[in-house]
Amino acid sequence: MKTKFTPMFLRVGLVMIFTLTLHLLRAGHDAEWPFMLNCPPNVTISCTDNIYNLSQYGNATYTTYYGTFSAGNPTVHYYLNNCNTGYITRTWMVEWNWVWYNCTQTITVSSGGYYGNNPIIYWPEDYEIGGCNPNIHPNALPLPHRFPTWTAGPCSMLGRSYSDMVFYVNNSCRKVRRMWKVIDWCTYNANNPSCRRHMDLYSGDQDHGYSGT
Fold first, then answer.
1. Which of 12, 40, 124, 140 could pair with 135 in a Cys bridge, judged by C-beta atoms 3.0 to 4.6 Å apart?
2. Is the pTM of this model over 0.70?
3. Domain ranges within the chain, ordered by starting residue
4. Do residues 75 and 88 touch, judged by C-beta distance below 8 A?
5. CB neighbours (10 Å) of residue 181?
6. Domain 34-110: what homologous superfamily?
7. At 136, is the secondary structure helix, strand, or coil?
8. Which tens digit of pLDDT belongs to each residue from 107-118?
9. Which residue has the higher pLDDT, 80 or 1?
10. How far is CA 124 from CA 65, 67, 176, 180, 198, in A?
11. 115-204 has the same fold as 34-110
């Protein structure tokens, strides 16, 4: 019985042809199924939400002829102010066929959702005090005539200040118009810088007939 013998160079040639054919088929499949990098959509969250476990807001994948795969871990940058608001970016980079692809998700961190973005301010009431040259510093006044108080969201940073205008009615009576200002530094706008409220103080030994405004 005779055994057929295939020359070595012919076997090597067949392997090379098979390998070349396989690469051509794969290239054809890649052309039919182009590479796609799938980025999660941009989202807006509250300043009280979790801003460190970002996977809950989605992760990028990439799709080829072979299926869909994870794009790996993103590069994360935080752009937040002292009020914990601003935005976060997550960028994925994937190399495919010697070409780098990238996509970025932006997570906006808002202070909204609390009291309509505005604090609820409780202003001090007008007050009448007797005696000559009484102490009218806020700390010297009884509650609720001292300072403004407020209810605000967890991402607010409020501060208060005041200024006085003194009007002398006569030698024994004066009226002080105190202007209180409250600013939320997390939402400060130079064109609308603060909440304001007047408070009137009266001092003297006689009834002056004025009422608060």
1. 140
2. no
3. 34-110, 115-204
4. no
5. 15
6. Immunoglobulins (2.60.40.10)
7. coil
8. 999 876 554 457
9. 80
10. 70, 66, 14, 9, 9
11. yes
Amino acid at residue number 105: Q
Report how far residue 5's alpha carbon sits from residue 31's, in angstroms, rounded to the nearest whole number.
40
Phi-psi region of 116 (alpha: psi -120 to 50; beta: other; left: phi over 0): left
56 backbone dihedrals φ, ψ, rounded to 5°: -65, -15
Pairing between strand 36-38 and 43-46?
Answer: unpaired
Report the C-alpha gap between 76 and 48 in whole angstroms.
19
Tell which residue, 185, 213, 181, 182, has the closest CA to residue 199. 213
Residue type, position 76, single letter: V
Predicted pLDDT at 192:
60
Tokens representing residue 93 in the block: 């980079």
What's the mean pLDDT when you consider all of the chain? 77
Could you tell me which of 150, 49, 102, 201 has the C-alpha nearest to residue 210? 201
Contact by Cβ (8 Å): 43, 108: yes
CATH class of the domain whose range is 115-204 = mainly beta
Q: Tell me: the pLDDT tens digits for 1-44?
A: 554 544 554 444 444 444 444 444 444 444 555 899 999 999 99
CA-closest candidate to residue 197, choices 183, 207, 182: 182
